[in-house]
Amino acid sequence: MWVLHAPQPFQPPAASSSPQLSCVARSHTKPPLCSITLNPAIATAKDGANNNRLIQSLCKQGNLKQALHLLSREPNPTQHTYETLILSCIRHESLSHGLDVHRHLVHGGLDQDPFLATKLINMYSELDSIDNARKVFDRTRKRTIYVWNALFRALTLVGQGLEVLSLYRRMNELGVPSDRFTYTYVLKACVASECLNSLLWKGKEIHAHILKHGYEAHVHVMTTLVDMYAMLGCVAYAASVFDGMPTRNVVSWSAMIACYVRNERPFEALELFREMLNKTNDLSPNSVTMVSVLQACASLAALEQGKLIHGCILRRGLDSILPVFSTLVTMYARCGKLELGQRVFDQMENRDVVSWNSLISGYGIHGYGKKAIQIFKEMIYHGVSPSHISFISVLGACSHAGLVAEGKMLFDSMVKEHRIYPRMEHYACMVDLLGRANQLDEAAKVIEDMRIEPGAEVWGALLGSCRIHCNVELAEKASKRLFELEPRNAGNYVLLADIYAEAQMWDEVKRIKKLLEAPKLQKVPGCSWIEVRRKMYSFTSVDEFNVRSEQLHALLLKLSTEMKERGYVPQTKIVLYDLDEKEKERILLGHSEKLAVAFGLINTKSGETIRISKNLRLCEDCHSVTKFISKFANREILVRDLNRFHHFHDGVCSCGDYW
DNA sequence: CTAGGGTTAG
Questions:
Q1: CA A641 – C1' B10 distance (Å)?
Q2: Which residue has the higher pLDDT, A329 or A540?
Q3: What pLDDT sits at residue A39?
């Protein structure tokens, strides 16, 4: 066995502004500490036991300052006294007093007590002072599992997963056995790390340790394992761990449901929820479960399902919980029922910034930019400070509505008025806003002037705008960077090919299509959903119609002929295959969205609104066809694409052909 | 003395 680097003697700093321990002030305001003049009777008390009791009771009363004063006169503070003091510092969020207590501990020689070292690490972790937590750990000679775990927890919380894993390795080499808590922390560390990928192998290794040490039936550990795989995108692994659990509780079920939602498999999320209700009698879903289930409904635009869940939430009395409320607002907005979202919002007794953000983004995706800005201002008026997500929401709303000047002003106000520094997403919003409005040079300038290294999001936004306005030159520049940053994202290649096709540069189209054949590319197939009588039906685009889609094809063909007589021109230029016009038209008719619309026309009553959601941006041909259909079939058609809602009515779309 | 799932955006 080898020894860790020798603990250095701890030197208590002399002045209160400590050079040894880094004292970083917390951003939020601390509760005021009482400063009552010390009662001389207490100050001179000689009885140690009495003093200890007094210090503890002063802490309980929240009089930390006086407690510390008394501590300096007490030669023999007990472990319990120190514990009380440390907890009190956490409660008051007072790092400077925490440092004082620490200094006293060192002075009295009690800092080597592993129990108190654990408490100190927790304290520094709570007070956002990870460096001090680490120093305590380094100087503690007798490291119980509690001491290790406390540091693991602290490091995981600040995202230093790699450090946790390297310490975990050392711990194993030293022969210190892990316990159930250790496993939960190190599993979390595989997710909470500076490096985003490649920790899966480490997680699997820990998984093996867990099985080897007989924790395969431990609910907490196994649930954490499910969650780790979920966070790393390994749905199959998560499911197999979940399936193998001998006992499960609400948390395990919720973790697995959340796993499906997070990894864009909402159907499976809803299915598992149903299974949970049917298979388990003794446990019932709670607010956390409901949030995930609502998210699944939202992502599918499954309005009827969502309403059922809403009823379920009301019956179970989970409706006063803020996150549930916010998710309900989002669910209704994303299912195309903005007015119901607004109604839920109006009923909320208290609202936090997340509730406001839900509503703002709701108006945004429906194209009501001005309204979104108005709600943003209302939020501030109500004393709620915007978060960085508020800005993503409101800037996105400006973008959908083409409110360039307003968006610029809001962007400027971020730093000036709210001290929120733009992140990648904000820059992407601005590039999108300007680019969509055909101010491509300005959009490119935003990228040039960025204070951080431009990532895929901003280049992607620029390329998307080049697609709309057919700017080959800028598109080539953007895609060059984009291909370096995300070489496996097929969507980017398709965008560029679209642009070349629009510009009739067929050789270039061919060249890009060659690149698209690379097997490693991640292609997202176009997919649309429609809910009919509480059942979801999904459609993927087809190049050839088969027996099942025959009826839909016939209807679409008939509609197409009628529409052509009234001025519809198929946008065959977006078909990237080298085929004749007739063939291209056939391919256009096979787009998943048209299939879903046709299915909706056949399977819903004549006055009923057709609601469709799809996973990609709506193509121009589908957009134009849906406009026609809304007029000639006299139907309201609501389509949610990747970015926003299109509300088709009487031949017009709410996006104003700006999307 | 410590532990597991969820809220808003794109």
A1: 13
A2: A329
A3: 46
Who contacts A271 (Cβ-Cβ below 8 Å, separation ≥6)? none
Residue whose CA lies closest to nucleotide B3 C1': A181
Q: Which of A328, A345, A362 is the last residue of a domain?
A: A345
Q: Can you read off the two tokens belonging to residue A57?
A: 């009771």
How much is the mean pLDDT over chain A?
A: 88
Residue A282 CA to residue A263 CA, distance in Å, equals 28
Residue A207 buriedness (CB in 10 A; 0-12 / 13-18 / 19+): buried
Asked if the structure places residue A521 within a domain, the reply is no
Q: What's this model's pTM, rounded to 2 decimal places?
A: 0.88
Interval A265-285 mean pLDDT: 91
Would you say residue A299 lies in a domain?
A: yes
Answer yes or no: is pLDDT of A282 > 90.
Answer: no
Query: Which is more confident, A545 or A524?
Result: A524
Secondary-structure breakdown of chain A: helix, strand, coil percentages, each rounded to the nearest 5 = 60, 5, 35
> Higher pLDDT residue, A4 or A137?
A137
Task: Please tell me the predicted confidence (pLDDT) of residue A47.
Answer: 63
Contact A302, A536 (CB under 8 A): yes
Instruction: Tell me the nt nearest to A432, Cα to C1'.
Output: B10
Write out which nucleotides of chain B lie closer than 7 A to a protein Cβ. Answer: 1-10
pLDDT digits (tens, 9 = 90+) for A563-574: 888 888 888 877
Residue A638 inside a domain? The answer is: yes
Please tell me which residue lies nearest to nucleotide B4, judged from CA to C1'.
A220
Q: Tell me, in Å, how far CA of A220 is from C1' of B4?
A: 5
Half-sphere exposure of A44 (CA within 13 A, CB side): 3
Q: What is the mean pLDDT of residues A49-62?
A: 89
For residues A454-466, give the mean pLDDT: 92
Å between A167 CA and B8 C1'? 35
Coil, helix or strand at residue A212: helix
**Domain boundaries, position A265:** 248-345
Residue A306: CB partners within 8 Å, gap ≥ 6? Answer: A294, A297, A298, A331, A332, A335
Residue A627 is assigned to a structural domain of this protein: yes
Q: How many domains does chain A have?
A: 2
The label of the residue with tokens 């046709």 reads: A598
Last residue of a domain, one of A345, A366, A396: A345
